[in-house]
Amino acid sequence: MQCHPIPKHGRHLHLRLGELIGIGRDSHVYGVHVLNITSNSSIGSDSQDAQPQPDLNLPDLCIKLVEPDKPRSLAREAWFYEQLDKMGLQGVAAPRNYGLFTAHCPFSQVIPWRTEDWFFRQEGRDAASYEGIQFDRQCYEPEDDIPLYDDDHGSNVNSHWKTFLQDSESPIVSLMLLERLGETLQPESRKRPFCGEAIRQDIKDILEDISWSGFEHQDLRCNQFARSIHPTPCPRHGRAHEWHILDFQCIVRVSATDDDRKELKRISQRVVDLKYFWCLSLC
After folding, report:
1. What is the domain partition of the chain in residue ranges?
2. Could you report the per-residue pLDDT of 242-280, keeping only the tens digit for each?
3. Which fold has domain 11-119+140-179?
């Protein structure tokens, strides 16, 4: 996965950071508001002088902002969104992804984006303590435990992110622009009258779409699904899914025969019936 320059004849989206939506293992998700859409020729000009462009009919948007030492992890997730798009699953089983963006930015410029809920993996560490830090050259990938994962085209091993090393003096800030979804699936949803089984079946159908496309999600829990707002009808099931799967940091692409994919579907669908999936105590 290589970075591309801004398209010469594209449009420039002016966004304002909104409210905090959720917190992940190493990222925060914020709502964003579209202030203006301009042509690339007006980039760098005063926003009042920029020529507005026609509405692109964009859905509600959000950004996923990763911790300063985890841009490689976000780049990996963005690659999987690309693969999902190639398989026709964006907007069908997963939210639409509008790209991964990086920029060199001193930590002091990121601080105002944080809320009191922001935390780094090492509690108590503030931005100043990152001065001179040696960021990990190689971080763990789920593929490390799977000998037959699918990388026939060398997308993983040839990626410049594979050997990426954050520069503590000129760090980059990384974010993904995504379609904003609705509420996340909660444990109590499983007991709702008349709809509990319908929700389970919809989740299982999504996992069927994912499995038959050669993806194995290794962190299946109910809060990894959110209600879809503008779903595209699913060709496999002949209807639009009410939920979409999130968080592709723990997903792998596998080489598999049809029988293997069928078994992968069976295993992933069984997880939906486990207490672990619904974040319930195993005792």
Report:
1. 11-119+140-179, 187-271
2. 999 998 988 888 877 888 889 999 999 999 988 889 887
3. Phosphorylase Kinase; domain 1 (3.30.200)
End-to-end C-alpha distance for the chain, whole angstroms? 43
- Residue 244 CA to its chain's centroid (Å): 12
pLDDT at 135: 42
Q: Which residue do the tokens 């996992």 mark?
A: 207
Q: What is the pLDDT of residues 85-98, one digit of tens each?
A: 999 999 999 999 99
Please state the φ and ψ torsions of residue 203, each to the nearest 5 degrees: -65, -45
Tens-place pLDDT, residues 4-51: 677 777 788 889 999 999 888 788 899 999 998 887 655 554 444 455
What is the full DSSP assignment across 16-30? EEEEEEEE-SSEEEE
